[in-house]
Amino acid sequence: WREAQAELANLRDAMAAMERKARETESQLAAVAGARTGSEQDLKEARAALAKAEAEKKDLEARDNLEETLNTCRSETVEQRNIVADSRATVSKLSADRRSRSERKATAQSEHDSWAARAKSAAEQMASLDARIAEARSELEKLAELPKKITAERQKLLGGIGAAEEAQRQAADALAQRENEIKTTKDLLRAAQNSVGEARENRARAEAKLESARARRQDEARRIREALDVAPEACLALAERPEGETALPSLAEVEQQLTRMKADRERLGGVNLQADEDLETLAQDFNTLDTERGDVEAAVEKLRVAISQLNREGRKRLKEAFESVNEHFGRLFTSLFGGGEASLQMLDGDDPLEGGLEILARPPGKKPATLSLLSGGEQSLTALSLIFAVFLTNPSPICVLDEVDAPLDDANVDRFCALMEKMADETDTRFLVITHHPMTMTRMNRLFGVTMAERGVSQLVSVDLETAQSFREAS
User: Residues 122, 8: contact at Cβ < 8 Å?
Assistant: First the structure.
């Protein structure tokens, strides 16, 4: 409540300050309005004087020898025009001040309304806090008698807990006795179930053996009927066993003899009546394959000869291209660095087609080193030298260079532009250079750029520097 009271007081003070500020603004607006009225009256008088002066000027134009009067009128006209201009500027300034004060007055009024709303909200919040305080006091009065009721209920519950614990002990003893009886009964039941299960397994095993024996008997009877075309009971008579001999040979001996007889039959095999025709067909296929093998061997030999010729021609052309590129590379490196020397070396020189290439460069004042040991700018110039050396080996009518001068300083950019101009003269190649470097732009013959005069509309702009230079020299 005290915080709300303090905030309300602050709001009232702010409201009073804003009201004072609004009154001051109104008085300033009244003064501005008066000044504007005076400036407008001065403007009217100046316009009337100007009209009068112009009328007098027209009257004096017809007269002779009035130069002095004319100069005086002109000076007065200029002064009146200056006064009118000053009056107009004052009126414009006063109008702007008036608009500014009107806006400030509107802002002050809105802030006044906002503070009034906040004061109303603070009053409503204070009323709500008073209601909550009253509710809290009534709740405290109700809770004052609650400890006595809790103590009585606690005593009652403690008595009930003792009786429940005694009943729980008795129930636990009875439960333990019943669990022991259940466990004994489960053990007896488990033993009986195991005995019944074993008996069922033995019975099922015996039944499975019996079914298997019956199936084997039926299979053997079927095999005897299919192989010997007799009933199983007539097998002994078919085997021509001696009379009076009742003992049968062992099963292993019979199976061994049967296997031996089947092997003898398989070794004999069947009679192939088309053996002569198959032999002729195989002979024809062999002759065809032999002819194709000769053709393939001849083609392989031709391919080897062609590969050897291509390798010789490739080594020759590679050597010639390497010598040409190496010569251009050394010359361009010296031109770009203003001295020094550079060369290309073949690695594993036995076969140039399978060997590597190493770049050796020595900038002015340094020892010879590989490309990886040079600085960033030196590596860029060396790479440009190698690229232009390859280009000079087989120059093209157009060459596009995209931001190649980005890692170079001004001195190196000047060398690069000089080298490009020299190459353009030697090879009749047109270089299209994409760059942001001002020094490179000044060395070009024509500049192309893209501008956006209107939003979303791109336009290509070109400048012919040679024509512009000729215009400038002519002017």
Answer: yes
Give the C-alpha separation, 404 to 417, whole Å: 11
Give me the sign of the Cα torsion angle 319, 322, 324, 327: negative
Q: Model-level pTM?
A: 0.37
Distance CA 124, CA 85 (A): 59
CA–chain centroid gap for 242, Å, is 98
Average pLDDT value for the chain: 78
Kindly report, residue by residue over 253-296, the tens digit of the pLDDT. Answer: 777 877 887 777 777 666 566 777 878 888 888 898 888 988 99
pLDDT at 455 over 70: yes
**Neighbour tally for 238: CB within 10 Å:** 12
Residues in CB range of 81: below 8 A, 6 or more apart: 50
Is the Cβ–Cβ distance between 415 and 382 less than 8 Å?
Answer: no
**Which residues pair with residue 342 across a beta bridge?**
361
Q: How far apart are CA 393 and CA 366, in angstroms?
A: 28
Q: Is 346 helix (H, G, I), strand (E, B) or coil?
A: strand
Give the bridge partners for 343, in sequence order: 360
Structure-token pair, residue 167:
């009943």
pLDDT band at residue 308 under the 50/70/90 scheme: confident
Q: Rounded to whole angstroms, what are the CA distances from 423 to 86, 342, 416, 444?
A: 67, 19, 11, 14
pLDDT of 112 reads 73
Is residue 228 within 8 Å of 240, Cβ to Cβ? no
Per DSSP, 390 falls in state H
427 burial via Cβ count (<10 Å: 0-12, 13-18, 19+): middle
Sheet of 341-347, strands arranged across: 341-347, 356-362, 369-370
- Asked if pLDDT for residue 415 goes beyond 60, the answer is yes
Beta-bridge partners for 360:
343, 370
Which of 76, 40, 81, 82 has the alpha carbon at shortest distance from 56?
A: 76
Strand partners, 457: 454
CA distance 463 to 87: 49
Q: What is the pLDDT of residue 206?
A: 83
Other Cβ atoms within 10 Å of 228 Cβ, number: 13
